[in-house]
Amino acid sequence: MSADHSLDVSWPTDWLRAALGLCTLQILDAQPTYGYAIIAELARVGLGEVKGGTLYPLLTRFEAAGWLEVEWRPGEGGPGRKYFALTALGRSELARQRVDWRSFTRITTNFLSHSHQTESGQ
Amino acid sequence: MSSTLDQKWFDEFILELRLRDVSGEGIGDHLATVKEFVADSGESAEAAFGAPRDYVASLDLSAYTQPVSVAGVVAQSVIGLAAFLIFAQAIWPWSAGESLDVGVAQLAWLSLPLIGITLLPLYLGALLRRFWLLVVLTLVFALAGVLSAVSAPQTAEAVWFSLDPLLVMVASALIMIAASIISTVRVNKDADESIREPFSEPGDGAKEQSQPRLVGYIGAWLFPLCSLFFLAIVLISR
């Protein structure tokens, strides 16, 4: 992933909320990792600052859905780290959501690119 | 190293997880997760996760809940308290060699704490989050007990029915002891659900756990102990 945006970009919360789950799965697709590393990666690619209180509820939902599995690994001279890894079900969900997201953003972009008239307001 | 504010946040976090019947292992897992993130980010727990109550409400805890019969615990408390209040009412008539006369007003006052405890599941969380509310409610219930004793029928017309006080004392004591034994078994069972963070050594949580278990035992035998105390006072003052 490359960073296309400056780090000080602050996206509307609703936009970030909509994309956060998919982007989190995308990060975990590369390798198993832990909460703070996911947040750091989201910031690095320009999605802005995400709080732990926003990310972890999402991860617990994904874990309950069977998309993620959890493993505690010893920390480096500190407490252990909770690593999250995509399951086969999680990878399949990521693939499905990628397709849906591309379709959704294409429709949205097309819609925003042209002047539009509603049927009732001709 | 956790700050005092973080420690307060962790304590409230544990309480909120307990209120949602999360297992000891589940609490340890979530607590360690928060501590890991706080250590990594350098933020306070409050800044990173918001209020403990809101954060816990946002988590999917379905994989960590343990089956707890709240109705069973409440029923057992109600039965224990009812037996204690009835025992306390019978002590004085027994001591004076009289029958236990029961009036309508006396029963009405007696029913107040019983109804209060029956409805406990509706406000248990609020009580545990606000200690002063627990104190106020205990005082109200104690006052209702005193008023129940004061409003005991003084004339034959006010008596609704009469009972043998010794029989009432023996029956209520047996019920109290049975409820306490059941409660003790539950405390021992709950002790197996102690908070255990990943990679913690056995015994790390011993200090943290010994106090709740002791409190559990005291709570389990509170009514029989109070009954013995009242009985001793009456016998000494005779």
Task: Characterize the biggest β-sheet of chain B.
Answer: 2 strands, antiparallel
Within the largest sheet of chain A, what's the order of strands? 1-3-2
Main structural class of chain A: mainly alpha
**Which structural class do you get from the secondary structure elements of chain B?**
mainly alpha
Give the amount of beta strand of chain A, in percent.
5-15%
The unreliable regions of chain A are 1-6
Q: Measured on Cα atoms, how large is the radius of gyration of chain B?
A: 23 Å
- Largest beta sheet of chain A, briefly? 3 strands, antiparallel
Unreliable residue stretches of chain B:
none
Largest interface: A-B, 21 and 25 residues
- Order of helix and strand elements from N to C terminus of chain A: HEHHEEH
Order of helices and strands of chain B: HHHHHEHHHEHHH
Count of helical stretches of chain B = 11
Description of the molecule:
Chain A contains four helices and three strands, in the order H-E-H-H-E-E-H. Chain A has helices at 13-30, 35-44, 52-65, 88-113, and strands at 33-34, 68-73, 81-86. Chain A has a three-stranded antiparallel β-sheet. In chain A, strand 2 and strand 3 (81-86) form a beta hairpin. Chain A is elongated, with a radius of gyration of 17 Å. Chain B is an all-alpha fold and 238 residues long. In chain B, helix 6 packs antiparallel against helix 8 and helix 9 (165-191) packs antiparallel against helix 10 (206-220). At the A-B interface, helix 2 and helix 3 of A face helix 2 and helix 4 of B.
